[in-house]
Amino acid sequence: MNDADVSKQIQQMVRFIRQEAEEKANEISVSAEEEFNIEKLQLVEAEKKKIRQEYERKQKQVEVRKKIEYSMQLNASRIKVLQAQDDLVNSMKEAASKELLRVSQDHHSYKHLLKNLIVQSLLRLKEPSVLLRCRKDDLHLVESVLNSAKEEYAEKAKVHAPEIIVDSIHLPPAPSHHNAHGPSCSGGVVLASRDGKIVCENTLDARLDVVFRQKLPEIRKRLFGQVAA
Hints:
Number of domains: 2
GO molecular function: proton-transporting ATPase activity, rotational mechanism
Shape: rod-shaped
Pfam families: vATP-synt_E
Distance between the termini: 120 Å
Oligomer: single chain
Structural class: alpha+beta
Number of helices: 4
Helix content: 55-70%
Keywords: Ion transport, Transport
Organism: Coffea canephora
Protein name: V-type proton ATPase subunit E
Radius of gyration: 49 Å
CATH superfamily of the largest domain: ATP synthase, E subunit, C-terminal
């Protein structure tokens, strides 16, 4: 083999090696580009998923805030309604309290009422000796019915007439503009056992409170169409 043949073979070998190198390089380049595209797609999908999750999380937060805000507004509205109902009921009681003042203005009927209140209190206490407290303005009316009240009680209870001691300490006076915030009493009496352990509060104000508590469900039903819990 002469030099020309050797040179030719070498050139062929060089071309073959170069071709293989180029093909290998192309394969590597294509493979790298495919891997890059796959990784890029995965990164994009991962980022999209992250964005979707973040959006869903924020959307849930907004929904929760809306529900909380709606619940708070609903509760506030309910409280306002209940407050308005209470204000109306209280205004009715205040009006009834003012009407009580008229009871003691009719001395004839009020005198009869005082006697009945004393007899009722004696029947509840069933004590041989009691203390009686009334308003200073009612003292003369109370003293005028004491004997008849004791006799009626004795007849009903089948006992001896009790001893009734009128207390020197009086119940507060009727409500007035001069004493708007102080203690007051619209009338009636308070009786107690001599040791003070048993007390029967039979004032007009106390009776109004009892009746009002008993009738409150009915009052609410008539006013608002439902019985308050």
